[in-house]
Amino acid sequence: MIKFIEETVDYLRDKGFEKPEIGIILGTGLGQLVNEITIIKEVSYNHIPNFPTATVEFHKGKLIYGELEGKKVIIMQGRFHIYEGYSLQDVTYPVRIMEKLGIKTLLVSNASGAINLDYKKGELMLIDDHLNLQGSSPLAFKGVELLGERFADMSLPYDVAINNKFKAIAKANNIKLHEGVYASVVGPQLETRAEYRMLKILGADAVGMSTVPEIIVANHLGLKAAAISVLTDECDPNNLQPVDISEIIAMAAKAEPEMITLFKELIKTL
């Protein structure tokens, strides 16, 4: 993997991806932050050596380098999931690339379902902790110790100082920002009533199919990490309605402006 990483990093540096400070991963239906940045360079994933390619139709598949609120950023417009057939090492490969290019902070967004029924669709949740229910770890491979501490500490996977800033920004901008535990599952099917009940018992406030692998690798590499979920549906097992993926994407887009405000105001302070 080290050789692959070096090849990818050399390619992107040659393309002008120079000394970014912050990496941002945009989740399902959450691509509009790109409109807020001054783009310096952008490259399609399928042109980047050793990079996975997004196979989900609503994930764009571009790595974008530019300036946002005076900071150099790299934005993943479209992410990878194990439900696409990728390994967890594939899914998290871009995080390793962004770290080698120079980022010190990783900000992640996702669309998720609300397990906590006090949380409503269209609202935001700051992730305070997580449950990895994807069946493996992105650190479970031979040679991982050459890239970072094998037994990565996960006592505080989400940076406390950044989370406190997010909460202050939300209050100042009158944005409703819940805080809770995110459960990451394999997917791509949505959950059954029994699975929603199980997740509630386990302590999850929201559920999705991403984010946790990237956060694990960010901690493995010593990056500061934070993540926000846009709650796109309510997962009430006693009154469960069929969910249309197009409705989830539409709800994500509706709630996205508040998430963009949080990210932009945070980046000013980093």
UniProtKB/TrEMBL annotation:
Q: Which CDD domains does the entry link to?
A: PNP-EcPNPII_like (cd09009)
- Mention one GO molecular function: purine-nucleoside phosphorylase activity
Look up the EC number in the record and give it: 2.4.2.1
Every Nucleoside phosphorylase domain range:
22-268
Pathway(s) it belongs to: Purine metabolism; purine nucleoside salvage
Q: Which SUPFAM superfamilies match?
A: Purine and uridine phosphorylases (SSF53167)
Q: Which InterPro entries match?
A: Nucleoside_phosphorylase_d, Nucleoside_phosphorylase_sf, Purine_phosphorylase
Q: Keywords for this entry?
A: Glycosyltransferase, Transferase
* Enzyme's top EC category: transferase
Q: Which GO terms describe its biological process?
A: nucleoside metabolic process
For this UniProt entry, what's an example GO CC term? cytoplasm
UniProt xrefs under PANTHER family:
METHYLTHIOADENOSINE/PURINE NUCLEOSIDE PHOSPHORYLASE, PURINE NUCLEOSIDE PHOSPHORYLASE-RELATED
Query: What is stated as this protein's family in its record?
Result: Belongs to the PNP/MTAP phosphorylase family.
Outline what the protein does. The purine nucleoside phosphorylases catalyze the phosphorolytic breakdown of the N-glycosidic bond in the beta-(deoxy)ribonucleoside molecules, with the formation of the corresponding free purine bases and pentose-1-phosphate.
Question: Could you identify this protein by its name?
Answer: Purine nucleoside phosphorylase
**From which source organism is this entry?**
Algibacter lectus
